[in-house]
Amino acid sequence: MTERPEQLNNQAIHFANNGNYNDAISCFKRAIVLDSENYLLWYNLGITYRDMGDLNNAHDSFVKAIKIAPNNEDAIEALATCCLQLKHLDEAEHFSLIGLDTNEMNPHFWNLMGVINFQRENYKEAANFFEQALFLNPYFENSLINLRDTYEELGNTNGVQECQKKLDEIK
């Protein structure tokens, strides 16, 4: 029986969902040998590495996915988030800005820019990014939490209370 990339991808996802990461990685790698220009295989490999805690290999896989599909928002966001987790703030910012260039209406990229600025202790800038994310999606829970924490750093007690009120409404 001939292996096909789609079958291997599905099998790998099944393995990964069951916590069998090494088997999943083996399937993804076999699929990539058959179709090395399939961004989804690289992206899913990156997700699997990320889920098992191997952020360096996740990063490399996401980079390959983006080289194949440079406008794929999911891959860009995954790479930017991975860079953030690796504490590579300049690289996280670079890919978040690419994401915003790709789709400025995606609140996830605005949120990522807020997190990067919060990490750099640029709280006013962080607040602006979180506010933009919430303008695009008023019920984006991560941005509400992040904005609340940023307002706390800025001493904006009214802002903290407003964010908490919205968080209580959506729970």
Describe this structure in words.
The protein is an all-alpha fold and about 170 residues long. Helices cover about 80% and strands about 0% of the residues. The protein contains ten helices and no strands. The chain has helices at about 5-15, 20-35, 40-50, 55-70, 75-85, 90-100, 105-120, 125-135, 140-155, 155-170. The longest helix has 14 residues, at about 20-35.
Helix content: over 70%
Number of beta strands: 0
Radius of gyration, in angstroms, nearest whole number: 18 Å
Pick out the low-confidence regions: none
Instruction: Return the average pLDDT rounded to an integer.
Output: 97
Shape verdict: elongated
The major β-sheet equals: none
**Separation, N- and C-terminal Cα atoms:** 50 Å
> Structural class from helices and strands?
mainly alpha
The number of helices is 10
